[in-house]
Amino acid sequence: MQKKDCFFVGKIVKKYSFKGELLVKLDTDDPEQFLKMESVFVETNKNLIPFFIEQLSLHKSSLLRIKFEEVETEANAEALLGKELFLPLNLLPKLTGNKFYYHEIIGFTATDVNFGELGEIIGVNDATSQHLLEIDHKGKEVLIPINDDIIKEVDRANKKMVLEAPEGLIELYL
After folding, report:
1. Digit-coded pLDDT (tens) for 92-106
2. Which domains, ranges and CATH numbers included, belong to the chain?
3. What is the pTM of this model?
4. Which value, in Å, is the radius of gyration of the alpha carbons in the chain?
5. pLDDT of 54
6. Pairing of strands 84-88, 47-59
7. Which parts of the chain fold into alpha helices (H)?
8. 142-167 mean pLDDT
9. Eight-class DSSP state of 72
10. Predicted local distance difference test score (pLDDT) of residue 42
11. What is residue 47's three-state secondary structure?
12. Distance CA 166, CA 50 (A)
């Protein structure tokens, strides 16, 4: 399994017990969706290694308490601290309406209701507190906040996204 075929689930942040249990900080608004996992890929030395799950539960609602098969000691668990967890893309729940995964909108054409066609969505900047669409407009980068008030329509069938950017925002980039 290659990383490009997977999505990020979360990161192992802490040991939980002396029996090899770990706590995972999940990258989701819906932690319950991960409670039925049987296995997960752990990134180790740029490789994805499958780990089978013995036990799962939520810990303080935002962390996942996980016990892997064959991770029996505190030392085994220690070796996994800081590692990232991944699952295959085909396990993502399908989203509808204007909800979307960042990876699925790459390559969509962005159109603004006032400006017209903006260009291709080439990425999403999620390194800032306000996540931004990165749009290529004739060789210039235009950044539009990802916000329910701005995103008017996500048309998966035609790979288009309709936006209504705040007045003057697009012009700042051009």
Report:
1. 877 888 888 888 899
2. 3-91 (2.40.30.60), 102-173 (2.30.30.240)
3. 0.69
4. 20
5. 95
6. unpaired
7. 74-78, 169-173
8. 95
9. -
10. 96
11. strand
12. 45
Name the band, by pLDDT with cuts 50, 70 and 90, for residue 174.
confident
Question: Which strand ranges, in their side-by-side order, compose the sheet holding 132-137?
Answer: 140-145, 132-137, 116-125, 109-112, 160-163, 151-155
d(CA 40, CA 150): 35
| Tokens representing residue 59 in the block | 């810990």
Q: How confident is the model at residue 149 (pLDDT cuts 50, 70, 90)?
A: very high
> What Cα–Cα distance (Å) separates residue 126 from each residue in 89, 133, 134?
19, 9, 10
Q: How many other β-carbons are positioned within 10 Å of the β-carbon of residue 135?
A: 25
Q: Alpha carbon of 53 to those of 28, 42, 56, 74, 127: distances in Å?
A: 19, 12, 7, 16, 30
Dist CA 23 CA 171 (whole Å): 46
- Give the length of the chain: 174
CA-wise closest residue to 55 among 88, 80, 19, 84: 19
